[in-house]
Design brief:
Blueprint: E1 22-25, E2 30-33, E3 38-41, H1 49-57, E4 59-60, H2 65-68, E5 93-94, E6 98-99, E7 102-107, E8 112-120, E9 128-135, E10 146-152, E11 155-160, E12 165-167, H3 183-197, H4 214-221, E13 230-233, H5 234-242
Antiparallel strand pairs: 1-2, 3-9, 4-7, 5-6, 7-8, 8-9, 10-11, 10-13, 11-12
């Protein structure tokens, strides 16, 4: 299927999930997206200001079929169970204080589903943490312009001219990465080249590898890109292209 920026995206929360392409294999119990990349955020990746900014705008909601795609069939019921902090008799509670529940959210800016997965040891002083799963948008919203790229702890973000933080648009099977010579840094460099070439206007995911500018590719493959938190403005990206 050929993807164009105006097609099949999850960037308009007023349209919900009507424009979402689902891939299923009933016999194997597989249900997933065929376009939007799934983003898994481990508990160790949640301790950054950018993640907390994104998390703070999520809204709790009732689970729906989209949230169920983030759970194995046997764990889907946990989406409907209260957390042990809300009900010590929850089916997801373990020995009165432990917990393996899930929570359903949505991102009101993009209409994207989010599932939080709780893991809490029994008793005091043990592990009590949340991890998250969601989908990356296929593009920023139609009236948004890319302004800044941010990476830290293996997460990739875009900030718009209006200041909105978004998970960086990403296509399924074209994952981003940094710090080595491989497909992930190449896919990221191609995307950043695209937004630089278009003054931040073309934010659609799926830029072809051959589009990557050599200087931007050198940066995404470098160890410097994989150190701490890095931010590149649109001006920085264009300066790389001219170096």
């Amino acid at each position: 299927m050929t993807f164009k920026p105006v097609d099949l995206n999850l960037t308009d929360p007023t349209k919900g999930y009507l424009n979402f392409v689902l891939y299923t294999e009933t016999r194997l119990g597989v249900a997933t997206t065929s376009l939007n990349a799934e983003v898994s955020i481990e508990a160790t990746q949640t301790h950054t200001p950018h993640f907390q900014e994104w998390l703070s705008r999520l809204e709790r909601c009732e689970p729906n079929a989209m949230h169920c795609m983030f759970a194995e069939p046997s764990t889907i019921p946990t989406l409907f169970h209260p957390c042990v902090t809300e009900d010590t008799n929850s089916p997801s509670a373990i020995s009165g204080s432990g917990c393996v529940c899930r929570r359903a959210f949505y991102d009101p800016e993009f209409g994207l589903p989010v599932v939080g997965e709780h893991f809490k040891h029994v008793g005091e002083g043990g592990t009590d943490q949340w991890s998250y799963k969601t989908y990356a948008p296929l593009a920023l919203r139609p009236d948004d312009t890319f302004s800044r790229f941010i990476t830290g702890r293996g997460l990739f973000w875009a900030r718009t001219e209006k200041g909105l933080l978004s998970i960086l648009p990403q296509r399924n099977a074209l994952g981003y990465n940094i710090g080595y010579n491989g497909g992930g840094p190449h896919a990221l460099a191609a995307y950043l080249t695209q937004v630089a070439d278009t003054e931040g206007q073309n934010t659609a995911a799926g830029a072809p590898y051959e589009q990557a500018h050599p200087a931007i590719l050198t940066w995404t493959q470098s160890s410097a890109a994989d150190r701490g938190t890095n931010e590149l403005t649109l001006h920085d990206l264009k300066a790389m292209q001219q170096s």
